[in-house]
Amino acid sequence: MRYRLDTVRQNTRFVVKNSILAGLALQDLAAIGEFFEPIILRERMVLQEPRRQLDHVYFVDSGLVSHRIVAAGTILETAVIGYRGAVGAVLFGGYLATHQSVVAIPGSAHRILVEDLRRVIDDRPGIRDHLLKYVQALALHCAQSGLCGVRHDREKRIASWLCLASDAVDARVLPVTHDYLSSVLGLRRAGVTETLIRFEDQGVIRKMRGVLQIDERKCLEQKACGCYKLISDGYAVLEAAAADK
C-alpha cells in the first residue's frame, strides 16, 4: 500500500509518496519540505559513489535504486531502495558514502542538501529519530543480504530479491533482465535463467521481453528464504508510523 499525506504549503498541494516523509509530523514535514528539490531519477543515474562526499539525500517517491558495494571491478547489491527509503540517509556518522547507489528502475525523488538536512534535524529531533529508524532498517537489509549471499541457495535468493523489489516499487511488474539479476546477485546468468524458467513453469511469474511479472505472490514468498521476512519487518516500523499520521 502506498501511503500519502496531503498538506498545503503556500497554496501548493504537496503529495508525499515516500514512506519516511509520510511518517513525519505535519510540522516536521513542513520544516524539511522548505528545502526539497524534485528530481527525475533516470535509469543508470548514479546518486552516490563510495568514498565520495555526499551532497544530497534523496527521498525516493517512485522507481528503484540499487544500493551496492563496488570492489576490484565487481559489484554486489546489498539493498534495493524504493518509495519506502532514502539514498544517503546513512550520513549521520559522516559525510563520505560507503556504497554506490544507481537507479535501476526510473522514477522520481525529492532531494535535500546534506547541510540543510543536518540543520533541520538539529532543530527538530523528531525528524532525526524517525530517520534513524530508517537507517537501522537499511543496515539490517544490508547485513542480511550479505548473509543471504553466502548461506542461501540460488532459488531462495532470487525469490527474495523479486519480493523485495516488488515491495520497493509497490508493483508486480518489474522491468529487469536475466543479465541484471545475474550481475547484482553475483550469480551465473545460466543459473538465473534456469531458476526463472522453473518459476514460470510453476505459474509463479511470467517472463516477457525485459520484464518479469509476478502472478503468484504468496507462492513466491514461500520460495524466498527467511531473509525476506526479516528485512520486510524492518521496514514495517516506518510504514506503521506513516499509517498513524
Describe this structure as you would to a colleague:
With 245 residues, this protein is of the alpha+beta class. The protein folds into two domains: 5-147 and 233-244, Jelly Rolls, CATH 2.60.120; 153-224, Arc Repressor Mutant, subunit A, CATH 1.10.10. The protein is 46% helix and 28% strand. α3 (114-123) crosses α4 and α4 (125-151) packs antiparallel against α9 (226-244). The longest helix is centred in the middle third of the chain and has 27 residues, at 125-151. The protein is globular, with a radius of gyration of 18 Å. The two termini are 15 Å apart.
Helix content: 40-55%
CATH level 3 topology of the largest domain: Jelly Rolls
CATH class of the largest domain: Mainly Beta
Total DSSP helices: 9
Name the beta content range: 25-35%
Number of domains: 2
Q: Which regions are unreliable across 5 or more consecutive residues at pLDDT < 50?
A: 1-13
Question: What is the oligomer described by this structure?
Answer: single chain
Question: What is the string of helix and strand elements?
Answer: EEHHEEEEEEHHHEHHEEHH
Give the overall shape, derived from the CA principal axes: globular
- Mean pLDDT level: 88
Quick one: how many beta strands?
Answer: 11
The CATH architecture of the largest domain can be named as Sandwich
Span between N and C termini? 15 Å
Radius of gyration: 18 Å
Give me the CATH superfamily of the largest domain.
Jelly Rolls
The chain-level structural class is alpha+beta
Largest sheet: 6 strands, antiparallel
